[in-house]
Specification:
CATH topology of the largest domain: Tetracycline Repressor, domain 2
Largest sheet: none
Structural class: mainly alpha
CATH architecture of the largest domain: Orthogonal Bundle
Number of helices: 14
Helix content: over 70%
Radius of gyration: 18 Å
Shape: globular
Distance between the termini: 46 Å
Number of strands: 0
CATH superfamily of the largest domain: UbiA prenyltransferase
Length: about 280
Amino acid sequence: MAWKGYIKIMRPANCAMMGLAVIVGGVMASGKVGFDIRLMLGFVTGFALAAVVNVQNDIYDLELDKINRPERPLPSGELSKRSAMAFASALLLIGLAAATFTSPLCVVVAALSALLGAFYNSSIKRTGLLGNIVVAFIVSMPFPYGWLVVGGSGGPLLLLFTFISFCAVLGREIAKGMADVEGDAQKGIRTVAVANGMSIAANAVAALFIFSVLLSLLPLAMKIVSAPYLAFLVPTDAGFILSASKILKDPSPRTAYVEKKRVLVWMALGLFAFLAGGVA
C-alpha cells in the first residue's frame, strides 16, 4: 500500500523526537508542564520539518540507496520520486503554517531551518564531516525553538542540553557514515569513514558519545535539574556507553548500522531526562 511508503519515508519516530524536543525546550524555558497550544504548534512544526528533510534526503539519495538501502520506499519502487516530492512540499506547508500561528520569529527560524536542511541534502552532505555538523545543528535546534515558542529565561540548562544533543547527534551521524561506507565511497561522499577509515571513525563516534555522557553529569553537579532527571539519565548514559564500546570493539558497517538504530532509543530516553530535569 502506498500509504505505508509515505509513513516509512518520513521516519515518524525521528520526527516525533524532533517535535518532542520542541516541547522539552519550551518546558525548560517556562519551568512548568501543562497544556500550551503554542507548544502543540511547535511540535507540529518540528515533526513536519523533520519529515521534510527526511523525504528530501531519500529523494537526493535515490542512487545511493540502490546500493546502501534498497529496501527503502524509493529504490524499492514503493513510492515514485514525483510522489515523494509532492509529499515533501505538503509537509513543508504544514510545518510553516503551524509556525505562522505561533509567532513571526518562529516562522523565520522554521523557514531558515528548512532552507538549511534542503541545502544540506542538495550539496553539503557530500562534504562528509561538515554535513554531519550541519545535521547535528539542525537536530539540536528544536530546544532553542521551544524557548522561542514560549519565551522565558532559557539559561544554562537549555544551552547545556542543546550542546549535549549536538554532540550525541554528531556521533550518530558519523556512525551512519560507517554503516553506509560502501555506497558512499562509490559515490564520492567523503564521510569520516571514507576519508579516514573505519577505525578513526569509530574512535570519533565513541569520543562524542562519551563526551555527551560527561556533559550530561554537569547539570547534576551544578544543581540546576530536578531529582527525576537522574532516573532517566542512568539508562540513557548506560546506553551511550554500551554503543560506544560496541563500535570500538567492532568498527564494521553492520555494527555501526545496529548501533545507530539503538542510539535512537538512548536519545529518546535522553529527551525524557531533559523533560524531567527541566521541570521546576
